[in-house]
Batch of 2 targets.
Target 1
Amino acid sequence: MTATNVTSDPAPEPRITPLHPPYAPETDAMLRKWMPPGSGVEPLTLFRVLAIHEVLFARMRPLGAGILAHGQIAPRERELMILRTCARCGAEYEWGVHAEAFSAQVGLSGEQVAATATSDADDPAWSANDALLIRLADELHESCDVSDELFAALQERYSADQPLELVITAGWYRLLSGVINAARLPREPWAAVFPGR
């Protein structure tokens, strides 16, 4: 498996121009809410594109924040789902942000991060549980569905609400991947790149 829809241009011209400072006071306040407190980093290009549509931008934040900060699944499992989903969608921008900003702190090795973009569920980098998550991301990507066999395995491993959260996480990051790819967002300068690039 390799990431799909990857542009060879490392810094494409975006189709949707992100907002640039100075921001309107309401926009500035919302952008600060989307960024980690005290990060000292310019708001991500993705956020500055989403901020163009103020109503959707405000409504999207609670779900995104809920997935990242208030979920029922372990942060490592969440990041594995995010990385695999973004890799399958060819969204190097979001994959690179999460690979750089979150993977090490949740315990994913460099080999595992790379494998989210290059390997299948049978890669030796994965535990049996990791392989379930890779398969889940793959099935959702390929069919927008989950096989009975895989869903039963998820129900054995997780509490009743957790498979739902995993599916919603994949859906949220597929949505963001679609925005990123359609808008042709250039990578953040500090973010990781897909293996082999």
Target 2
Amino acid sequence: MTLRIKPLELPLDGEHAVMLKKWMPKTPGIEPLALFRLLLRNPKLSERLHPLGAFQLGNEASLVLRDRELVINRTCARCHCEYEWGVHTAWLGPHAGLGPATITATVKSSANDEVWSVRERCLISFVDSLHDAGTVSDELWQRLLDFWTEDQALELAVLTGYYHAISFAANTAGLLPETWALRFPLMDPFAHR
């Protein structure tokens, strides 16, 4: 991949530094992410994207961390966004209880793979359906409501859409993976389809 849009260089000053501080989690030893420095090239866009992202990854979201990370990782994998997939799997995957087999499955496995629980199969099917068709069938909707409320299902749909947007931005810019991030498993994502 070729870098097309260069993220802002460090150190940042003024308005950019203030906004970057909002974006970055309080994790010691992590340099400001290229994605955040990319978004800060357009401060108005960055300012409007931040609250939704902060909500989705924060304590106010109604979804448990494992569900959120499965949605994010699957969405990024389906969008072929190694940058964001790698950041989330390395940074939040362990906190969400995602082991190596599950992380690999977000890229390489179908929704029916045995690696997933019944609940996770439903979640992965939901993400795949939104990615492929932009909607879900009535049957899948009913299965989803066996595990999540309607409000949570709405949250899942918005989370999937948000990470499509993030993936599209990172891919369009040609962001290279962070040095500490995971890389896609050695296989074309979804070659089995």
